[in-house]
Amino acid sequence: MTKNERIVCLFDVDGTITPPRLPIDPKVDAFLQRLRTKVAVGLVGGSDLGKILEQLGYKSGTNKSEDVIAKYDYFFAENGLVAYKDGKLIHTESIISLLGELKLQMFINFALKYMSDLKLPKKRGTFIEFRNGLINICPVGRSCSQAEREEFAEYDQIHKIRETFIEALRSEFSGDFGLSFAIGGQISIDAYPVGWDKTYCLRFLPAKSFDKIYFFGDKTDEGGNDHEIFMDRRTIGFKVTSPEETIKKVSELFEVPIE
Where does alpha-D-mannose 1-phosphate bind (predicted)? Predict the structure, then answer.
């Protein structure tokens, strides 16, 4: 069967094709490669390039990062602020060029002060992570263990730590800062300029080139970092809850076997 290059399936990473911050299952990886023989396949993650590559099987000294990227027609890290097509880098952008150092430090100082007053089951390290396209804020600390990550996620479900934090950020930084906020993954909040959510990557998938853009993501509810692209009129959105559900839905849509 000839590949239909005018249809693209675009996948979130964490919670959609991998468990949160864990490696992709080889069966899911193989399924996506079978899908790629039928339609174009793209990934769009909020994490930086290094984290996404690690989840998708890149290991220093074992294989090449370029080979992992080239397994997909489109590869978007940081919502598309770092963008690849056919394995080649086509675009980069940085939040610092938009905000400037003064505003950036005002924001970081506020976030650190807010987190210093939080009482959580555990706190570890790396509470702020600066990326090209966003600032990632993590109340528990990104250096937490997998067990501590899951403990915080359960605690957050009950106590709405991140939802309340986002309300405080919106109250403080509405106006001149022009920032949006979304719950990212299991443990963090993404802060990014308005319009720099996952819809940013759609500028590299113009309507004249595609008849249909399918999007699959798990954080599609309002406040989640898949919400805007899921709701965008340019995409056909599907909410999923796990990699297993993702490949089941895609298999039904495109008649790709699950092995």
Answer: 21, 131, 142, 149, 188, 190
Q: Are residues 211 and 85 in the same domain?
A: yes
Residue 86 designated active-site: no
Whether residue 14 lies in the annotated active site: yes
Among candidate residues 14, 48, 156, 197, the one labeled active-site is: 14
Any binding-site annotation on 131?
yes
**Do the annotations mark residue 21 as ligand-binding?**
yes
Sheet holding 179-184, edge to edge: 128-130, 135-137, 188-193, 179-184
Query: How many domains are contained in the chain?
Result: 2
List the catalytic residue out of 12, 156, 197, 226.
Answer: 12
Check the annotation: does 12 bind a ligand: yes
Quickly list H helices, the chain: 26-35, 49-55, 65-69, 96-99, 101-116, 146-159, 161-173, 227-231, 243-254
Q: Is 142 annotated as a binding residue?
A: yes
Residue 55 and residue 21 in one domain = yes
What is the span of the domain harbouring residue 126? 96-193
